[in-house]
Amino acid sequence: MLVSSTGSLPLVLTLGVVGLGLQAANATHLAGQSQSGVGIDSHMHIISPENWPASPIGLQGIIDGPIDAQTIGEMVDAARIEKAVLISGAYFFKDSELARHENEFTAAQVSADPGRFVGLCSLSPLQSWALAELEYCVNTLGLEGLKLHLVAENMSLTNPEHLATIAGLLARGAELSPGLPVLIDFNWTDDAQTFSLIQLAFANPTINIVMAHGLGHHFSELAAIHLFRDVLPGGLQNLYLDVSATLFLYPPDSPPFENYMWHLRRFGTERIMFGSDYPVDSTREALAALEEMGFTPEELEQILRTNAEMVYRFQ
Ligand SMILES: [Zn+2]
After folding, report:
1. Is the residue at 10 inside a domain?
2. pTM, whole model, 2 decimals?
3. Do residues 110 and 145 touch, judged by C-beta distance below 8 A?
4. Which of 7, 16, 108, 134 is surrounded by the fewest CB atoms within 10 Å?
5. 96-112 vs 69-78: helix axis angle to the nearest 10?
6. Which helix (H) or strand (E) holds 240?
7. 287 or 31, which is more confident?
8. Whole-angstrom Cα distance, residue 180 to residue 256?
9. Residue 91 belongs to what domain range?
10. CATH code where residue 222 lies
11. Cα 226 to ligand 1 centroid, rounded to whole Å
12. What is the pLDDT of residues 241-260, one digit of tens each?
């Protein structure tokens, strides 16, 4: 959900504004705390001590300091969540050295507790060094996946040039690390973006694409993906969803809630992952919201743990 301040976009789009600025380890206790005591927060942003003040989330006051492994550890401990996927802040920067620093910082945070954390490389796809940075992330830093935020880049999957850039990144990622998870932030303004993404997923079956934020208000497209999965031979087994931020978009007392739940289950709880989008929301708040949705214990186990363990390749 977090986007850069490039262009005229606000820092955080409409989704996910709930809980902004929350310094979560001190969050007020909320109802619906985990009964399981296990699980993975699969969408957490980190940023280094050196670069946080100049990052969009620092400049706009969303954070008041760096986010490191210790911060994340305290955050997930407060929710009794065991593990976390750490997202590099490199995509905030178009300067290659700043981006490199954030990816190296991410690898260093993972190494603080490699059994607990998995790290995602990030980068600004239109920069000339993007492919080289991906290679460095996978081959040298050992980061397990890639995060792309196309809206923050003012990129459109209906723009042939941009589509080719993303296709090139995915193809290289597949060569470097078959099964590479690629988390793509979803703040689309139009449905056509989703269908371009579906085509990308179909063309790159060894890349696992995770669509962030439950497709937001485009969630009705989850039914279309279910249909495509049935009709395309072997197709779209590599499309997953995280419900970060969206948990607060359609709470159980909202009119679209039952509709939203139907679409999530239609897409399949074996493909859905829990995430907080911290620092947008705290892990504890997000978990409480998830647990109020009425998923069965078996579904919660998939959403909270088994899917993320597999997709993000936790050891
Ligand atoms: Zn995010």
Report:
1. no
2. 0.89
3. no
4. 7
5. 50
6. strand 239-242
7. 287
8. 34
9. 24-311
10. 3.20.20.140
11. 25
12. 999 988 888 999 999 999 99
